[in-house]
Amino acid sequence: MYERISELIAEKKFAVLREELKEMRAVDVAEAFDELDKKNTIILFRLLSKDDAAGIFSYLSTQQRKNIVNAIHETQLNEIIDELYFDDMIDFLEEMPANFVKRVLASSTEEERKLINQFLKYPDTSAGSLMTIEYVDLKKEMTVKEALEHIKKTGVDKETIYTCYVLDDKRKLEGIVSLRKLVLFDADLLIAEVMNDDYIAANTLDDQEEIASLFKKYDLLTLPIVDKEGRLVGIITIDDIIDVIDQETTEDFQKMAAMEPSEEEYLHSRAFSLARRRIPWLLLLMVSATFTEGIIGRFEDVLQAVAILAASIPMLMDTAGNAGSQSSTLIIRGMALGEIELNDYLRVFWSELKVSIIVGITLGFLNFVRMMIFSPADLSVGITVSATLVLTIMMAKVVGGILPIAAKKMKLDPAIMAGPMITTIVDALALMVYFTIATTILGL
Description:
Elements: H1 2-10, H2 14-23, H3 26-33, H4 38-47, H5 50-57, H6 62-71, H7 74-83, H8 86-95, H9 98-106, H10 110-120, H11 127-130, E1 137-138, H12 144-154, E2 163-167, E3 173-178, H13 179-184, H14 191-194, E4 202-203, H15 208-218, E5 222-226, E6 232-237, H16 238-256, H17 271-288, H18 290-298, H19 300-305, H20 308-311, H21 313-336, H22 345-374, H23 379-409, H24 419-441
Parallel strand pairs: 1-2, 4-5
Antiparallel strand pairs: 2-3, 5-6
């Protein structure tokens, strides 16, 4: 698709391209924007109809949106914003500079300004920042027939009509009813008779991760969002939750790799910005590695007495770090999916202990055989290294399993207790065990 669009722009066949764009899916056209240079991006956007432009605009990256905002006339931009669903408009405004938001607010009605300001004040990761106000509301006194007529009249501009919300005179949520029920049930039945009053709802200040968990647990397509008084203020749809899941997963991966999380796309980030997010954690880990250096220095006489011990240090540290990372990754992911709770720490401890015994003894035995066959080490050194390997693997897996839970207990993100952090902690512990066993067995 990109090749075709690029070819038509290069040949200046704009009329042909305009017609072909009408037949393309919005998300596919949005992907083509990422491949075009800035000049051709603007040309392509200007060829879109007003309705198509709004649909495609909601799929564009932050940088592409900024390029278009800076290049097109304010009147055309306002037309696009008017066509966006309310939650997409809020997401867009959150990405834009303050002076641009002021321009949008200035051209909005008083009611729109009040709503926009209300949404922009919600915390970035809260349910309030994700929700839309474009939903269908019904009264329980309505008949099914009246409800369907109401949906036909007001549903055109709503983000979804598949689930409708039954409100009282004070806009308190009383129940929900699906469009499927309204179509299948008798036209004379009251909404009060067909609505479901056993519904799932969330508060405006609930964290987006909790919202994502609700969608997964109850297989939801939409979720009503209420305030402290139980009044319906908006809904969250499944497409927004998919974006949240992507965002949270990316953030966890970045933290697990010892980086400061960022929503900037990699190819659109400056080298200085990328470096700034990596340096703090690398510096912390580098400084913490001085503990490892101090342990080695403390037992320097042991290494000089039996030089072959030094050759096994990298193997022990790498194996311990990898073992800890395996456990921490599984536990962190389990916690993210809601499979592991804080009160499961004893079960996690016992499970990782059993696994570590099996893994430790297996690798320790194989390492002992390896050293006896391929290494000049004598029996006592082989026993020292292999015994250390067993104990460090056991220790690493238990620590790797428990630390993420401990982090969560302390209101920290469990993802920080992943690869680099676990490796640094386990390395120091592995060396202490190693030299303690060496001095005991070898009598140094």
